[in-house]
Amino acid sequence: MYSSQKLKIGLIGGGPGSFIGAIHLNGALMDGMFELVAGAFSSNPMKSKQRGEELMLDPSRVYDNYDEMFAKELELPAAERIDVVVIVTPNNLHFDPTVKALNAGFHVALDKPLTLNYAEAKELYHIVQGSEKRFLLTHTYSGYPMIKQAKQMIAEGKIGNVRKVYVEYPQGWLWRLLESEGNKQAAWRTDPKINGLAGCMGDIGTHAFHLAEYVSGEKVTALCADLYIKVDGRPIDDDGVVLMRFENGASCVLTASQTDTGAENNLRIRVYGEKGGLEWQQELNNTLIARWPDAPAQILRAGTGYLGSLANENTRTPAGHPEGYVEAFANLYRNFARCIYADRAGETPKPEWEDYPGIEDGIRGMAFIDHVLKSNKSDLKWTPFIVEK
């Protein structure tokens, strides 16, 4: 299946000092299936050039903008040009480069959320569906081995039909008005023209929503949202609570905040079924707790022989050797690459390889944002969750 030639990346965004750009690169390059050969790293050509120098790239393949990158790369022989475009820009620059990359014949890996707004998401959905290229949306937390173990255990009926899901995502980094203090991350993430109309719920609430559906295997059918602005002067939400109903009758409580003072990044999910329950949290990500009504609780650990195929396919180190956030990214990129290689060889990818987030997850995430905003403004509150495509 594998080719002797690595998949070549052209990166959009990820300029000097970028947090998420460096994380994406570390994850993508970890398994030796990708190599970075080109990029348009910043809207500022000088900064793009600087980042290209830091990454020791050929200066002729460091571009002033992504339009130039697509045009120049297509002039190269097929064996030399980029294969995959990785987009790590703010949300308002997701739609246009993704569409142009797909139309140019490149695979795309895109940081979440899918687009700036729901209208763009619906248009992009059909473009991706009509493309022959692979599309990855990096909902990172679905890459953790023990999250995959939880998903597989639930799918296999180990805890019975799901009854209740709790998912919480507490952060505290926006506890004060950092956007007024020159903090670039805070500035764009709290600007509705760049981030979108949902703040906290668009940024990290979408992760919690995706995890709730991914792990439980159930789809949301209705929701009721309450959004808050806890820090005076902020134009969009920085805290919120969402009640959700699943198609099988299960209920969910989702909380997300970026003003939980002192909180770091401890995304947590608990799923309870008819026969047992499962608990996972990111700050102890190698552990999954299983709870039973008639037996002691079990502590399941990554890297052990008793786990299922989804976890084993995404585990890199023996038990007791910590894996983490970058490895979760790497798992998504490795599965993405394996599927591209399989496609090229005319082979069917293993189901475990195709277990990465894509356009369906993306449009459901944007529908979540849209419905949360509608519910928050509505006196009726409970809003049917209908995904328009």
In short:
It is built from twelve helices and 14 strands.
Overview of the molecule:
It is a single chain. This protein has 389 residues and is α/β, with parallel strands linked by helices. It folds into two domains: 127 residues, Rossmann fold (3-Layer(aba) Sandwich), CATH 3.40.50.720; 192 residues, Dihydrodipicolinate Reductase, domain 2, CATH 3.30.360.10. It is 34% helix and 22% strand. The strands form two sheets. A nine-stranded mixed sheet has the order 13-12-11-10-6-9-8-7-14. The protein has a five-stranded parallel sheet with strand order 2-1-3-4-5, sandwiched between helices. Helix 1 packs across helix 11, helix 4 runs parallel beside helix 5 and helix 5 packs antiparallel against helix 12. The longest helix has 20 residues. The chain is globular and about 65 Å long. It starts with 6 loop residues before the first strand and ends in a 5-residue tail after the last strand. The model has no long low-confidence stretch (mean pLDDT 96). It comes from Algoriphagus ratkowskyi.
